[in-house]
Batch of 4 targets.
Target 1
Amino acid sequence: MLRDLRYLTPALLVLASACKDEEPPPADETTTTYWQHVAPIFFDKCVGCHTEGGIAPFRLDNYEDARTWAQSSAAAVAARTMPPWLLTSDGSCGEHRDSMALSQEQIDTIAAWADADAPEGEPRDDLKPASPPSLDAGLDLVTPEFVPKAEGGPLAAFDEYRCFLVEPGLDHDQFITGYEVTPGNPQLVHHVLAMPVDLDAESWLGDGSTNREVIEKLDDDGRDGWPCFSAAGEGVSVEQQPVTWAPGMGVVDYPAGTGVRVRDTDVFVVQIHYNLHDGPDSTASDSTQVRLRLADSVEREGVFLMIDNFLDTLFFGEPASLPPGQPAARYESVSDVGDWLLAEVGADSLEVHGIFPHMHERGRKWRVTLTDDAGEQCLGDVPALGLRLADVLLLHRSAAHHPEVAPQDHVRVRHQRRQGADHARLGHAERDVPGRPVRRAAEVS
């Protein structure tokens, strides 16, 4: 993804290069400048990625680089593709905690600075990147030092998706109440998932094999770990994905009094999406740490579950199809969560604490609503999923209230996907997906 970003705005890059050596016009007291007006925004919202050694392909923490990218930055924030918080944040579709979205005033400030030929202002040294809190202690899941190799093809030209098995060493059931992910090489790590797996559980292959047997077959290429474009690898059954991470995130705290159970017999599978920033011949390595905050008990047990009725049609009857060659092919599905989810967890009602709007590669728009006796309420809306970085929005927690799932309630998911000329049937639209039973659910905690 990062390598592709270099080619998104070639005209702007050429323009910036031509102007870079010219002196900016002097600023007066009414001029919007980098150091006095724009840098505070960049340091608060952008420099976590746009810094030396960060996952982003250019820096915004100094004037020279920021001026080079002024017009590109203004266009990206105006389109709300950067910072990569693509949920609608105007109050029309839920309220969400820890939003990275810029206010309209901040967007206008960056635009005014770029339009004024990006004046520097008075240099200062008091600005520091936003420093998220960290976990001082916890259970550490550490992946081996690994040199990723580009898998190639249209979906992974500069990428590798790799899974690693880590033994947590628990002697009794515990509950995850929060986590922190620290990549060893931030330039390589695009996103991280960590999921408890029961090795003796039946796999999703439908042939009676266990997860242990499937993983042993996948882990046969002489390198650490195994390929896993989806979840824990093709055919590995997974109940939950309680850890999801993308660049710029700090500590994730679950709602107070809640936690996700990890059985003493579980192992963890850590999936890492590597993006080879320096090209497919890169020899850079990474060892990533996932730190879990655990508790022996919690007031309420949370669950992370997944709805994907679109992909589930691969395994029951005729697979869903989308018309080929359309820039925005629509699909809508409804899950009667009130009928089956409450029975599954043995509860009369559930509070929804988060949503996980994830669509890989071809996703364009995404919207989820919950319908109950009072009508339809919007839980989350992503009007533009144009970049793969923003594709992973991870855990977005409701700030004002937690909608409840009761009997007869249902969740409606609407999304749009870009279809190539030769991508009509679902089974060929994105990737091969392992056979597995329907696992209808929402991210609920």
Note: Residues 132 and 422 are 44 Å apart (CA to CA).
Target 2
Amino acid sequence: MFVTTMARESDRYWGLRNGAHGYVMKPYEDDLLQARIRDVLREVQPEKFGLL
């Protein structure tokens, strides 16, 4: 997951193409960051969230 000040769409595409599971731009709301972290954890550890 990238948390960055780079706000251009091309930066976001670059991050996702290069393996980021998420891309959050600063400034961000704490709730948004927590939600994205939960989403990434569900992607990479689905068994811990009852998804397998």
Note: The chain has a mean pLDDT of 87.
Target 3
Amino acid sequence: MAMNRHRAPAQDDGRRSGVGSAADVATADGATADGSVADGAAVRLFHSLSDPVRLRIIRLLSDGERRVVELTRELNLAQSTVSGHLACLRSAGLVDAHPHGRSTFYALAKPELWELLAAAERILDADGSAGALCPERHRPEPAAACGVTVRGCVLSGQGRP
């Protein structure tokens, strides 16, 4: 007598069981459900920064371009895993790839990324969750106070220190 093994369908209680991709929220053209292409680009950007391995890849690439084989060795991860993370970073426009002979080299594409990571550090620091996201050599210079008093602006002396 053959046993029939069927799994009962999972109950959908509104929670997601895994990490979704930006494609879950944005359409193929990058637009979100309400049609905003800019929101879709922002979703891809912040999704690409939401994984600790991708943040490590960004920090490694801050030292210069690397091949996948070098990243797999430094991260101690499978080639397919590293390639998947690089694809995510490329789709967000943060990493460029260029072939050189039989190898492909990956490099950071946006120097503005350091400003974003430094701002994220300040936000985390304000909440007591300090973390080093931006390598010291890539930290943007602190902005000078503009002289205009703006409520909430740390630089004008009206915000939190």
Note: Residues 149 and 156 are 5 Å apart (CA to CA).
Target 4
Amino acid sequence: MTRWAAFAGVTLAVLFLLLVLARLSQSVVTGAYVTREERRWLDRLPDGADHLDSRSAPAPRKSPAESTLEPDREPSTLALLANVSVSQGFFALLLLGGAWLAEVPASALGVAADALSTGLPALAVGVAAGVGLSLANALAGGLAERFDGDPSEELRSVLSPESLGGWVVLLGVVLPIIAGFEELLFRAALVGAFSVGFGVSPWALVAFSSVAFAVGHGAQGTLGVVVTGLLGAALGALFVVTNSLLAVVVAHYLVNAVEFVVGEGLEWRPFR
């Protein structure tokens, strides 16, 4: 017999720990980003002006993460990637262990026998959704960059490796772990299992999980949180329609991978 309450307790505990860790992790994201006010001040400077005279410049605004930054703490990219992989991998094991001990059926987590859940159709849907969401994400990031800077750019730059081996680790290990764990928590557990176990509307749970998903990405700034919430809602809807953990993991992975490869690897920023 499935112990839904016990699994819910494990899931909510993991969610709480993740949100706390996400808040603490904001302190590793450094660098101020340029606002519209700062750009306008620069544009008003006449040609030949002494740009080093910044007495009339607007006060620099700290990034959402910089306000909690402690002096002389600049972890390496490798250390950050290792921290993300280990922490999220550990949380994933906790969730899977909780599901196993509570005897949660795999179908409630989006792992069913039908092809749309675990077969090639699920993979194809995930790829198609990932491509579409990547385009939408790129458009949102580009518009943010054009009008007031892209606050998620500083997070990507901190996590972007400088060597080929680093990119292999990022794309082949870190991003799959992130996509797998976050979809297991925010879609499979919070939407799928809670809907089956407690009879709650999956669409209401999509709304709840999307808000939690957005809050967990606070290092990306206010606009980044909004975009992440919309992404979470789209992935939640995809999960409800397909009942496929595979589809949402593939879609999530592609969004992250495309964002890193295009924005940081290729440094292609068409809106600049």
Note: Residues 30-38, 63-73 have pLDDT under 50 and may be disordered.
